[in-house]
Amino acid sequence: MSLARIFGIEIRLDFSVLIVFALVVYSLGAALFPRWHPTWDATLTWGTAFTAGVLFFASLLAHELAHSVVAKLRGIPVPRITLFVFGGVSELDREPDTPATEFLIAIVGPAMSALLGFVFSWLGAMLAGADFGVEVFKDPEAAMAHLGPAATLFLWLGPINFMLAVFNLVPGFPLDGGRVLRAILWGISGDLRSATQWASNMGRAFAWALMGFGVLQALGGSFVQGVWLLLIGWFLNNAARNSYVQLLVQQAFDELIVGNLMRTHFEVVDPDLTLEAFVNEFLLRSAQSAWPVIEDGKTVGLITFDDARVTSEDERATQTVRDVMSPIGERLSPDVGGRDALRALAESERDPLPVMRGEHIVGLLHRGDITRWLALHQLDAHQHQ
Ligand SMILES: [Zn+2]
Question: How far apart are CA 269 and CA 230, in angstroms?
């Protein structure tokens, strides 16, 4: 669900957020606020709970916006932020290319949460008055009961944001602290791969600790909390593992060129061939889906399954390949990098794209070839773990 656009970044809400929002509002409106303020009526209690829920998600959004804005300032485009059940994700177009950039992008999120924690706590303390600090130690219940709705709201949001900052600073991938750790190790050693492996392993260790703690809690009677921790741990463990594998694939992909990916085993056809002969001798006889048309050693066009399909059976007897073939048009060079080739294929309506060196066709590159290559490499990456 698309919500808004801030600084050119699309803000999206995953459906799962609504469930968490409902849970937060419910736990405040049904449990916490009635205990703090037994004298409040239902409208005030639920109104405050609802506002608190909205401000909580606004805080998460501010955290993600901090990441995204710094990323944009460092030259990395950020198309969108998605809020989902475990928090938010800023989708960066590419990974930071220096440790300093990664460090800045990572640290600014928890810094924003800490700042919000400070501002909300300060506002809450101002509204609560000077006596509150003394009173809360003598009789917390009575001290809380004296607070107005705004003070209650801010004194709940402040500590929550501090907790967000602390949780995100845990030095394990994919948490912000894990990125900070990776940036530091990367800066010291210059080795992105081993830095990522360390941060990823720390992340997995933390995830397992969280899951273990969740099981203990569930067995100890706090079933919902325990299961919740178990789910977060499971999610973090997967994310930590995937991020390392992804990096391995990406690094290998960066070194790759179209020349390594393209198909070089293919048939070519003559422009004067009748369509009937083309269909019977080429199209029906192989899995190839596009045939380069060669005349006097030069590539003059490309004929595809669709080009032949639009003709009727009568036409096929009289027409030739030249009559229906498409011009070469979009093309790739064999020296183009793997990532650029992927983008070109994704944006093009044609599949495969011809790979040309000058006027000569040297290969065909299908979208499926890249997927196939990635699948091969991912297997490889799993073995290295
Ligand atoms: Zn963050």
Answer: 60
